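Researcher: Here's a chain I'd like modeled. Treat it as a single chain, no partners, no ligands.
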Amino acid sequence: MAVDWSRGDISHRLSVFMLDPSSLSVRGQAKGVVASGELSLDYYSDTRASADISIIAKVGEQPWDGTAAMRLVRTTYDYTGILDESPLGTFFVKPDENAVSWSDYGDMRTWTFQLVSILYGIKTQVLTRPLVLGKGSKALSTVKSRFKSPIGRTPFVDGNAKDYGFSSAVEYDAGTSELSVLMDILDKAGDRLSVNELGTPTVKRYTAPSKLGATFTVDSADPRTLLVGPVDGGVARQAVPERVIVSSTGTYKDEQKTFYADAKAKSGHWSTHAVRGYTLDDYRNVSDMEPFTQAQAQKLANQYLKEQQDNIEESLAHSLLYRPLKDGDVEKLTHGGETRRWLISSADLDLSSWIWRLQLKGGWS
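Model: Modeled as a single isolated chain. Structure tokens:
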């Protein structure tokens, strides 16, 4: 039975399970989990999620063995018992000297852990030598192969993921993070890398947020609304540039060459220097441009400028009573007489109050 998240008589409880860091199989459940901390989702972060939790144990006891990954699980219940149980996310303890700390009160010690997503463990792994992908190399097979070795994980590749064949050889320098390599390859293919609540990396076709349907709806005027005020907004068009400059370096008629092109807003447009008093530029270095011509560079500059002028993403923020959210969710919000769709660009869940703080982008009808 689906949970009515607007009910005022439901409660939530956090549990933490210790996992084998390689297989992510469950080793056991942590005791003394504190009803506080924070879970964060970030659509634009390369690692997508993070968390902070605390565990209380007697001084001298070790609630974490120094290797285990952790899975945060949410249990929802009422006076009748458990209504729903589901993982919130699967994490590593951050590889940082300040990621694990403790504080004593009497004979009890409160341990605090900074947690990072499974993708963070790919970000910290780097190429030991230059990686060259030859002309004709396929994006998805390359990504699957690198996940298997040297990363040692198995991703979920959605059936709608797009593939891509490199039109020329591409080289990644030694020291580049594996995550950066994977994201660059998938970006060229038109795919997006994320991670699910069980810690499995996921590859799906990228869809512009403005084209996504709503995941859930909220009406600020509904007496049973999940929205917790106030609603805060901004003026996003301030970030739209007057001019986009494109550069791309490659081989043209057997010679190394760089093409440059720029596109500028029409006279009188609100983004122009004459109106603003200054020029806001957006410089883009495009790799692997196909076809590699001056005309293509100009086409891209025109395209990028038009996209930014026509698809202005507004900003909005509000809080929300707990309901399940995941990376890439879209909220359909009715507020102030308007109904519009908003990408959840970031969401921070207070694990004591179980209230989300949402940062939204979009405003699409």
